[in-house]
Amino acid sequence: MSSKQKLELTWIGKEKRPKLEPRILLEDPDKSYHAPFRHCPRALEKEPRVMGVCPPRPLAGEGPGVREDIFDNRLIFGDNLLALKALEAEFSGKVKCVFIDPPYNTGSAFTHYDDGLEHSIWLGLMRDRLEIIRRLMAEDGSLWITIDDNEAHYLKVMCDEVFGRANFVANVLWQKRTSPEARLQLGAAHDHILVYGPSIQKLQFNKLALTENQAKNFKNPDNDPKGPWASADFTAQGWRPNQMYKLISPTGVEFEPPPGRCWSNIEPEFKKLLAAGRMWFGKDGAARPRVKNYLCDAEGVSAWTWWSNSEVGHNQEAKKEVIHLFGAEDTFSTPKPERLLKRILEISTNPNDLVLDSFAGSGTTGAVAHKMGRRWIMVELGEHCHTHIIPRLKKVIDGADKGGITESVNWQGGGGFRYYKLAPTLIVNDRWGNPVINPEYNAAMLAEALAKLEGFTYAPSETRWWQHGHSSERDFLFVTTQNLSADQLQALSDEVALSPGSSHAYGGGGNTLLVCCAAFRGVTAEQASQRWPNLTLKKIPKMVLARCEWGHDDYSLNVANLPMAAPEPETPLLPAHSRDARGRNASKVAGTSDLFGDAGEDA
């Protein structure tokens, strides 16, 4: 394969992409939850702490600075592919960190997930989600996906296609177990965490704080006035002419770079380090030179790709956290420990950054992000969104969750979240099979839905009755289910042209308006565009019928929701003894195998 050829993963049905309906989100205030006040650092404060009155308290673990309690986090109940599409208009380019823990497609049946999709379907459904996630991410953001050996390597190639192979950051190995499984000849000790960024050139991770064991490596054998230090190699790989000079130690010993290496700096920089007392030649002054790095200057250490369970937790720790929260041993089979999420967010985000998890599971990502002062969005379809995630988040907000990372970040409670569900589909069929606007939609819902479909920001004006949204400072949206007459359109055009912000009469560079209505009478669309150049007319629902797959509510990674096989092309009938009881060729029975082929041919 030449260097210019692109490696692609192929599977049956790869070319098929759903035409997703960009649903609106409906808040249910009864399920939203907020702390009644902001939490302050004054432990002995006697005055009532009213929201907005107290100063923000410092966030433990973040060093100098303050933190505001965050109340506008989002928990979304519904299919995560539709939810991602619903978020796209508002949050494109804004998410700093995405963490997802998708079903691993192992063939095992879990309590809350039917985790055994046919390989091709799993790849297709993951691809559809990753493409939207890519658009939601900030250019300096990062994506972290936990996966096991069963699909990790296929997923890696697919992510290379979605994000670009050059934007692959690392494959982190998380030691998820504490001992091997006795039933296996070679037990899996780790999961993979694939890390990608939309633009690796703009990606800049935070360093990790030194642990106590790491800090012990800093000593002060020469009583350096700057305090404890640790030495580092003063050579670099390669051969650079201006870094191949001779060094002389304080005792007169000459040194040259080892074979295949050069000094780390050019000679003038070395002399500056030497004058500053930062070069170390050993206790006797005759050892090969090393450079001092001081503990007082240490900004932390860069993370690497091996994460031991002693550092970030393991499966059993995660299960204990869930049992502590919910009091049931059969809640979740594969939760992730809070320490693992803490490590990811420490590296990839700062306070107030936005974190997204579209496979929320037991809600660990939101709980950890909340305790660390990050904004968050979580999506979950299962009923455990109500039975587990909401109670968990309430405990976090109330300061009643004492487990996980609570103590290490000094979390005391506060903040809140808003609960949303996906609106029903916009278009349904009436009793005669004709497509009509869903009667569950009121006027406001319809205006918001059409704004999203047409690429407008939904923002009803309090003073302009015809302004339901805008795409620019002078381009607006008006939605009505009425039939508009030519006189009504004339009056509307006049008002739009003369409204504030329009310095010219219509057609002269002033405001423009997209009018979505049931019908318009007494004029054709062509005549309307000539007569009222500042108006664009579209009919509801005809204007959107071909846009989306209406009425499709579930694209979940669940074997129960797999698409039905497409009808078979006609094939010559075989002799009767070769056909099944329903007259089909016995070698070609309709089902999953029809649509996706044999397992060995899907990649």
UniProtKB/TrEMBL annotation:
Stored InterPro entries: DNA_methylase_N4/N6, DNA_methylase_N6_adenine_CS, N4/N6-MTase_EcoPI_Mod-like, SAM-dependent_MTases_sf
E.C. no: 2.1.1.72
Keywords: Methyltransferase, S-adenosyl-L-methionine, Transferase
Highest taxon above the source species: Bacteria
Catalysed reactions, as listed in the record: a 2'-deoxyadenosine in DNA + S-adenosyl-L-methionine = an N(6)-methyl-2'-deoxyadenosine in DNA + S-adenosyl-L-homocysteine + H(+)
A single GO molecular function term of this UniProt record: site-specific DNA-methyltransferase (adenine-specific) activity
Pfam family, one: N6_N4_Mtase
Domain DNA methylase N-4/N-6: 95-387
Sequence segments annotated as region (Disordered): 568-603
SUPFAM superfamilies registered for this protein in UniProt: S-adenosyl-L-methionine-dependent methyltransferases
Gene Ontology BP annotations: methylation
Family: Belongs to the N(4)/N(6)-methyltransferase family.
Protein name: site-specific DNA-methyltransferase (adenine-specific)
Organism: Candidatus Symbiobacter mobilis CR
Source organism phylogeny: Bacteria, Pseudomonadati, Pseudomonadota, Betaproteobacteria, Burkholderiales
